[in-house]
Amino acid sequence: MAAKFEQLGLIGCGLMGGSFALAAKRAGLVKRVVGYSKSPSTTERARQMGIIDVEAPSALLAVSGADLVLLAVPVSATEATFKAIRHLITSNMLIMDVGSTKRDVVDAATRVLGNNLGSFVPAHPIAGKEVSGVEHADPELYVGKQVILTPGPKTQVNHLKRAVELWEGMGCHVQQMAPEAHDAAFAAVSHMPHLLAFALMHAIINQPMGKDFLALAGPGFRDFTRIAASDPKMWRDVLLANKLEVVEQAKMFQRSLLNMLQMVEDSQGEKLEGMIEQASNSRSHWRMGQKGK
Amino acid sequence: MAAKFEQLGLIGCGLMGGSFALAAKRAGLVKRVVGYSKSPSTTERARQMGIIDVEAPSALLAVSGADLVLLAVPVSATEATFKAIRHLITSNMLIMDVGSTKRDVVDAATRVLGNNLGSFVPAHPIAGKEVSGVEHADPELYVGKQVILTPGPKTQVNHLKRAVELWEGMGCHVQQMAPEAHDAAFAAVSHMPHLLAFALMHAIINQPMGKDFLALAGPGFRDFTRIAASDPKMWRDVLLANKLEVVEQAKMFQRSLLNMLQMVEDSQGEKLEGMIEQASNSRSHWRMGQKGK
């Protein structure tokens, strides 16, 4: 049985928050949504679109009377948001976020929430679009996607259970792991790909013939660079929030890349083919959402 | 009006060659296909699949009696193939290749073809799949795709004209450019993305937790690494054949990447956002097959 909530306090009515509200309402998991966004026009738009039922004039007032609170703000705004709402948080309230980094979010919660830390279940739904903003909110965004929860030693078991039921009720696959393992994994499989795609686009457009080159790019380039169109503010925040792990992963990537480039320069065909083959085999056998051998 | 050919001599009956034969026959541009592949089982399979009408026991015999010859072999095999067939090449024959690098192919043709160099119209259809082999041949592979022709000063005008008509007759958009410009462009928009995708996969799978990380990867990773599943032999050849331009593009990429990483390490949020924004804007406005502003 999925958990039922009377009132969702939604802080941040953009793509992630808006899609959550739509999905939770559609699944009958949430009866009423009180929403707040930093920009009043976003909040208003969310109400017009039926994403929220009531506009709250502040984050604090969005929390008032809620039994479920979702922070769907940039990771860099997490600590300030916790501070803004902490006086109305109760131990019966389930609080979650949707941030793509977890250690910094857990640290912020630990610093700010005090005795109510047990109400917070850190969450990262692995879903997104290159476009952001309330106008792209989509009740299907989370369906079939993985959600990582990173509870800590103080997390209340009943809140964790309700969080699992809530995401599963929206059609997600829920996994639990430590915040540090989460951040290393996402540096490798998400933050690095974004960084590489940004860097490649940047390198191409800053060449004299860059625009002509882009006109020749095909489907491989299209798919490889799709994530380069992602939101700059959000990705600035993610990369900075996960700095240590990103730098660590970048070092390992550089070792592989420089190795391959050296093989190209030295025409070491056999070694080069061996490295490509390892990569190609792994990618051929990989399926999204499936555990490896 | 599209050109009509009596007999296509197809050398290499894999994905690219097989798809060409199927498309040309379907469009009524070619009446009969005589095919040769290094592996007899591939040639036999191509005949069983109706891709070729007659199996030739050698590349030379595939050329005999043809008015159109397509080399669809790995770029590293181009020179040897030219040598194998040169004694039966006539000035009335249109000869093309489908290689993803052009300077090395043009150089090989110049060395081998002598007075018949004018028959050769170097071609690069920008199409492919991650899977290779005759069993994936597909008459739709080239439809709507760009084809780059890189004729030289000795190319016969009538052959160039027939080559343009042939590809257009199969639904392609044809462009002409110098081999050097072609190779720089594709190093930037195709060879670098492949190299980066190979290197990232390689770096991830060689970490102790790599397989667990991969199980968490989402749609962004899926699209970014799709090309990492490409054929190792083919990509070894492409990277080696276009070594100079790949190394040049890699330098420019490294400048962008190391800049961004330094900004991450130094928490220079504003600068980092500026670089991401430039990349994101360019990618958002890019459309496949469209000239930039």
Task: Summarize this entry quickly.
The structure is a homodimer of 293-residue chains. Chain A is α/β, with parallel strands linked by helices and 293 residues long.
Give the helix/strand layout:
2 copies of one chain form a homodimer.
Chain A: E1 5-11, H1 15-26, E2 30-36, H2 40-48, E3 54-55, H3 59-63, E4 68-71, H4 78-85, E5 94-97, H5 103-113, E6 120-121, E7 123-125, E8 146-149, H6 157-169, E9 173-176, H7 179-205, H8 210-215, H9 219-225, H10 232-241, H11 243-265, H12 269-285
Parallel strand pairs in A: 1-2, 1-4, 2-3, 4-5, 5-6, 8-9
Antiparallel strand pairs in A: 7-8
CATH-assigned fold name of the largest domain in chain A:
Rossmann fold
Number of domains of chain A: 2
Q: Level of helix content of chain A?
A: 40-55%
Q: Spans of chain A with pLDDT under 50 lasting ≥5 residues?
A: none
Give the radius of gyration of chain A: 21 Å
Tell me the span between the first and last alpha carbons of chain A.
32 Å
Mean pLDDT of chain A: 95
Structural class of chain A: alpha/beta
What does this structure look like?
Two copies of one chain form a homodimer. With 293 residues, chain A is of the alpha/beta class. Chain A folds into two domains: 5-177, Rossmann fold (3-Layer(aba) Sandwich), CATH 3.40.50; 181-285, Orthogonal Bundle (6-phosphogluconate dehydrogenase C-terminal fold). Chain A is built from twelve helices and nine strands. Chain A has helices at 15-26, 40-48, 59-63, 78-85, 103-113, 157-169, 179-205, 210-215, 219-225, 232-241, 243-265, 269-285, and strands at residues 5-11, 30-36, 54-55, 68-71, 94-97, 120-121, 123-125, 146-149, 173-176. A six-stranded parallel β-sheet of chain A has the order 3-2-1-4-5-6. In chain A, strands 7-8-9 form a three-stranded mixed β-sheet, with helices on one face. In chain A, strand 4, helix 4 (78-85) and strand 5 form a beta-alpha-beta unit. The mean pLDDT of chain A is 95. Chains A and B meet through helix 7, helix 8, helix 9, helix 10 and helix 11 of A and helix 7, helix 8, helix 9, helix 10 and helix 11 of B.
